[in-house]
């Protein structure tokens, strides 16, 4: 973990994004606890993780000189750290002043900080903290401020959703079991969630799946998320307050939760005691809300919050229900954080038999904004959001089907219809309507959209256009519910897709294991979902490539792998040699194989025992020694020895290994062979001082690699931006860690290729992208047109570009306002 943070966070914060309930806070807590408890004896300057929940900080905490802010953060986190380290040897570390160690700041909840999360002063303070910084943020909030903070952080990481199918089912089994319910119900519940587009996102979140386990006592799920939260509120209340008089306070509960949610809005996560009094949450009602879990109370800080952001959004939607829908929409549509609450509001209106009103309001909303944009585009360009995209996403969130699910876009220009067909988070009903479009490009886009339902794909597999049929067929051949039906398709490429699909049933994979097409059998052999008995059979296949894939599969039985170690084909034995499931005895035997290729594979295997690796580090073959030098588990001492190997290829492998110590990398930076030096220059673990020295290397390619490395210090990148070699400047322009001011300067470079790289970089400042949208070179403008960070006004300037490729990429950009696409056809 420490090596990863050092590599990824040389001088700028590492941002971790995720949806509410994705596990951002849990991740930092896990890192903090496991790392802190594993620290050894106290050493001066040692790296120490410091967990800080930003919502707990007073506004003044993050103000002042970085050293003073660091001292306040250390003091704030001290108690929590001592509780985690209690009883461990590392507890003594926290007895020392924070300035005697190197903190690694784990800052949780940028979206919950007091003040604006995109505030330049806040980011300056965070970036200047001594030590590395990792911070978490809700995806929607970060998307709103990412242009403001461009260049102040490394490229964001994102916590992935639970994967559909086995991963979601496995988690729900655990959640049901923890709640005392039958885990066998998990597959049916997941299928029911997946069948409902409005509820499907619930299955992607660990926290919300846990809620599903708690509140769904039957296999019948509510129709949409609003109904789900209504049922969740009712179930938690009745279950936790069974036998208590407060259970009768349902009307007071609903009024109070709506009032509190309206106080917090979408900008705040917590409320204070004053807000509780204003919402009439006092006495027995306060206790009932605490016991039921519908509110969580931090008595020490005198703060209250909803148990999850989605509950807050649901009750906020309930608070808005009494106001005219158009008024609420006009007030909040431009705030990305309000989308879930607005979607829930539409669902609540629909439940109140107001679907016709919802359709009329949305139709008027998108029509009015289209007219306003035609008259004055500067308003939407400043806001940076498309009202029509928002309205279409709200319908998907609400889970309701209108008479016209496209809100009038069925008669829109083809570019608009294609853009809608490619949208993420669009309602299945809208895609079904577009699947019948007369334009084959529209239908192709529908076939490719991950939100397209099975029913719609079933229409498209019979399309008159061959490309549409091909896309729909290959998509269905990879979907859990339909994969088996394509196992006997006459097209071998389709069967190959089924053979490699982890969602394919065991019996389907077993049947494909005897397919006449060797590539089909090879993909079955490489599929991690293939049953062990099928893999054992494939290990005897006449085709060596099939046996090799079975040998690489970690699901292949150990006894089968042991048999394959005696295969007459070296590349089959090599597959066993690189398999992490191969027994230590088998690896030791393969380490003595006559074929260099096999020993090289053993040397690369991270499961190979240290003793075997130490032996291979002295192998007569340079290729084998190179494999040892590439192994991430290799000891620093052995890597230091290999760094002096007579063969440059071996030294190159040491230079690229993330486990190589800074001292060894610094020594290799002086290697006589330029290929070794450029490997050092590319290594994210290379110290900043070494990178700065390599930035002056006589070899231009070494300087290019320094310019490419995201760990290179900003001042070094700025110096390389003035390099005489255009290829070096191109790498600086491409690097997402390059400071905004440096990118802005490179946007005026005389070399069009340099400007093209600047135009492609999401970290490029909006003003520079706006200037590049007017560049004389079409390739530069094309890159501006497809850059997701290009501001709406710059995209709008490309709407009627003379270059057809520019216009096409402008239309495909998910940041392009649909209103601009309409205007482009005027």
Describe what you observe in this structure.
The chain has 826 residues and is mainly alpha-helical. It is 55% helix and 4% strand. It has 49 helices and eight strands. The protein has a five-stranded parallel β-sheet. A three-stranded antiparallel β-sheet has the order 6-8-7. Helix 4 (120-128) links the parallel strand 3 (102-108) and strand 4 (132-138). Helix 14 runs antiparallel to helix 15. The chain is globular. The two termini are 55 Å apart. 47% of the residues are buried.
Question: Top keywords for this entry?
Answer:
five-stranded parallel beta sheet; three-stranded antiparallel beta sheet; 826 residues; globular; single chain; mainly alpha
